[in-house]
Amino acid sequence: SRRVYREVRHSISNVNAFLSENISGIKVTQIFNQEQTKLAEFREKNENYRKSLIKQIFTFAVFRPIIQALYFLTVIIIFTVGSYNSIKGGPITYDILITFNQFVNLLFTPIQEIAEEFNLLQSSFASSERIFETLDTAPCITDSENAIELTDLKGEIEFKHVWFRYIEEEWVLKDVSFKINAGDTVAFVGATGSGKTTILSLMVRNYEIQKGQILIDGIDIKQIKIASLRKNIGQMLQDVFLFSGTILSNIKMRDENISLPEVKEACKYVNASHFIEKLPHQIVRERGNNFSQGERQLLSFARTIVHKPKVMILDEATANIDTETEVLIQDSLEKMMNIGTMIIVAHRLSTIQHSDKIIVLNKGRIIEEGNHQSLLKNKKLYYKLYQLQYQNKENL
Fold first, then answer.
1. Cα 17 to the chain's mean position, in Å?
2. Are the C-beta atoms of residues 85 and 91 closer than 8 Å to each other?
3. How far lies 346's CA from each of 122, 294, 364, 396, in Å?
4. What are the tens digits of pLDDT across the range 249-301?
5. 31 Cβ partners below 8 Å, 6+ apart?
6. C-alpha–C-alpha distance, residues 189 and 326, integer Å
7. What was the pLDDT predicted at 171?
8. Burial of 199 by CB count in 10 Å (0-12 exposed, 13-18 middle, 19+ buried)?
């Protein structure tokens, strides 16, 4: 019965996952005229659920009557044997027989209740298995035995001959070496898949490198506590995630040491206050779907600034926003460049023209380094990217 219940739970999970995935993609399904295909997929998963449910019903249809039949059979045996013994003049009297029958009732009543609650019991077993499975999962990246806390981070970052891959024999980064001085603004550019975002992920130890070394202020990041490392590095990603709640809770991220005046100052600093003050309420719905892409990005900037990181990572923050919001974000970026070390990944070259250094990647290798003007003079890949973008603008 437990196996049957697992099948039911698995079928329910499949149906729920299918609905969750496809409800959010209804427009895409309709645009590509895939309603019948998705309907066939749903019917298949629903049929598996129906079969599992029938197995469950059949199991309980057998289990519960068996318990009831055992109870009646026990009572019949007690009265038959007891009455026969009493008639023959044995030691069992009628009052002992009645007492023994009451004991049988006390025995089978909990068993019957367990049978009634068996569904809930199996649900608890299934849930507990998932909880313990999650708790028993060991993290892939852990602190070393003598890991240290970062107390006074300056923001100097160095990659020394770093090699990294997600899949065996498919190197994403190949012998990458560069140095970022404290307080500098450095940008990474290159085609999609060249390894830009991977470099940012390696800086905060989302993954472990296979070869080479990554240093922050001359310290190997493997010798730094992960929590301490990430606390000092603020990340502003392209896909901003906002939690259900309020703007204040999303910016503070439950850090009670951050005061309301600090939050307001951070919002003003990154130009987020201009739209926050116009809102009739400060409620944030799930994933921030009541805000535009640009507004979510500005809130992400405020969230990062208020936690006062020494190193800031900006990954494609201006990719999918309108021109008016881009102006606000550009102004915010110019302000944030004065706070500490800033590392930017952007396809829009207008975002990175004022960077102290621009590193050009191609197929996992660094092929150019320099500032905006020097790279244009070289007339290599950066020059081609620059020409391509501005030719497109002129054509528009």
1. 16
2. yes
3. 51, 15, 16, 21
4. 888 887 888 888 998 888 888 888 878 888 877 788 877 778 887 788 888 88
5. none
6. 18
7. 92
8. buried
